[in-house]
Automatic annotation (TrEMBL):
Cited Gene3D superfamilies: 3.30.70.270, 3.40.50.2300
SUPFAM superfamilies noted in UniProt: CheY-like, Nucleotide cyclase
Keywords associated with the record: Nucleotidyltransferase, Phosphoprotein, Transferase
GO MF entry, a single one: diguanylate cyclase activity
Enzyme Commission code: 2.7.7.65
Protein name, per record: diguanylate cyclase
Domain Response regulatory: 2-115, 123-240
4-aspartylphosphate modifications at: 52, 173
Recorded catalytic activity of this chain's protein: 2 GTP = 3',3'-c-di-GMP + 2 diphosphate
Length: 412
């Protein structure tokens, strides 16, 4: 990633280059005037340019026109800005403007560049029955490099959400035919938690209760139309930052720090409440508990770094074997559990036997050593018991697998 800084002040240019290089880790080129900026733009393609509004050889914003003319996103630095200049810059399509006031201004620039880099991989869905409103919101989002999808009503929005994975933000109008914004949010929240997707409501309705109603229905924020560019971008940025923080907190609570798979708490919290319903429905449900055989020997012989690498590779292979169908968790040091909804004991045994063979046949290439490892697995099918009871039976089967020679799968 390459950044262009167009700034005639050597102090400001040096500060920005240092901060961007240190915090983002990209290449930064500096142009001190319009001529050198033009030469650099011909020579390189830039992710974004940070340019002073007034240069000695470009006193009227010509540097902004140059940058935008090269199809490079532009962040404007300025010492002052009157309302007419502000409107002109926003109409030109700049990313944002920043007043050169203190170090915090430059930190904002660096943060904005990092946000733009993140936005390139962020999908946003805009649901609004007004084509003009959708286009306006889409243009604002694309200025900040988001991947933007559109839906002309609530029903189409649900279709898009059903077929497109990875949408992180839904921006929805209130007044839409059929499924309005409130109902859309309710339906979306049935499938997507606050850790998975953020929602911002929009409306030009003057009802003062709309904000509270949107948020009570599951939205993260609300914007009253018409809104200014700066408020829109700040709300979107803050909402996505909050989503990221919530996601990180959720991951810390529910994912294993080493392997990235679910942890013991998530496993029990997810499945313990489900078992009574599964028993009532007569649904098949099996669990498997497994240990890497002689794992202590790996740590003792090669060190804990190699042992950790083995566990990560083991979790990766197990995840690849299971696909998206079943739930994997690390429940102990080298012990993993798999919940297999829809599989009876026989099918679960077959699945685990296939995984056991793949572990046996493919050595672990870790650091400078190739380790031939095996796994022992115990399988149990749900009976008239709690999850604790089911896990105890799987654990007993695992103990039997180890006691009868390891490298085998045994069912309770």
């Amino acid at each position: 990633m390459r950044i262009l800084v167009v700034e005639d002040s050597s102090v400001v240019a040096r500060v920005l280059k240092h901060m961007i290089t240190l915090q983002i880790g990209c290449t930064v080129d500096v142009a001190v005037d319009l001529a050198s900026a033009r030469a650099l733009l011909r020579e390189h393609e830039y992710f974004v340019a940070v340019t002073d509004l007034n240069l000695p050889d470009a006193p009227n914003g010509e540097s902004v026109e140059l940058v935008l003319g090269s199809h490079t996103p532009c962040i404007v630095l300025t010492g002052s800005l009157d309302p007419a200049q502000r409107r002109r810059l926003l109409q030109m399509g700049i990313v944002d403007y920043v007043f050169k006031e203190n170090r915090f201004s430059y930190e904002y620039v660096v943060k904005l560049i990092a946000t733009l880099a993140r936005n390139r991989a962020t999908k946003v869905l805009v649901a609004d029955d007004s084509a003009l409103s959708r286009k306006f919101v889409r243009n604002l989002l694309e200025l900040h490099l988001f991947q933007v999808l559109e839906a002309e009503d609530g029903a189409r929005a649900l279709e898009v959400l059903g077929r497109e994975s990875g949408i992180r933000l839904l921006i929805t109008d209130y007044n839409m035919p059929g499924i309005d914004g409130f109902e859309l949010i309710l339906r979306v929240r049935e499938k997507f938690s606050r850790e998975e997707m953020a929602i911002i409501g929009l409306s030009n309705d003057t009802d003062e209760t709309l904000t509270a109603r949107f948020i009570k229905n599951g939205a993260n924020d609300f914007l009253q139309k018409p809104f200014v560019h700066e408020e829109f971008h700040c709300r979107v940025s803050n909402t996505l930052e909050s989503l990221e923080m919530v996601r990180k907190l959720w991951e810390q609570a529910n994912l294993d720090y080493l392997t990235g798979v679910y942890n013991r708490r998530f496993f029990f919290d997810k499945f313990a409440p489900q078992l009574p319903t599964l028993k009532e429905q007569g649904a098949s449900f099996s669990v498997a508990l497994m240990d890497v055989d002689f794992f202590k020997r790996v740590n003792d012989t090669h060190g804990h770094d190699v042992g950790d690498a083995v566990l990560k590779e083991f979790a990766k292979r197990l995840t690849e074997s299971l696909g998206q169908h079943f739930t994997l968790a690390r429940v102990g040091g080298e012990e993993f559990a798999v919940a297999m909804k829809g599989l009876d004991k026989g099918r679960a045994l077959s699945l685990m036997e296939g995984f056991r063979r793949r572990i046996e046949e493919t050595p672990f290439a870790v650091a400078t050593v190739d380790l031939a490892l095996t796994v022992s697995i115990g399988v149990a099918e749900l009976g008239d018991e709690s999850l604790d009871g089911l896990m105890k039976r799987a654990d007993l089967a695992l103990y039997q697998a180890k006691g009868s020679g390891r490298n085998r799968v045994i069912a309770s």
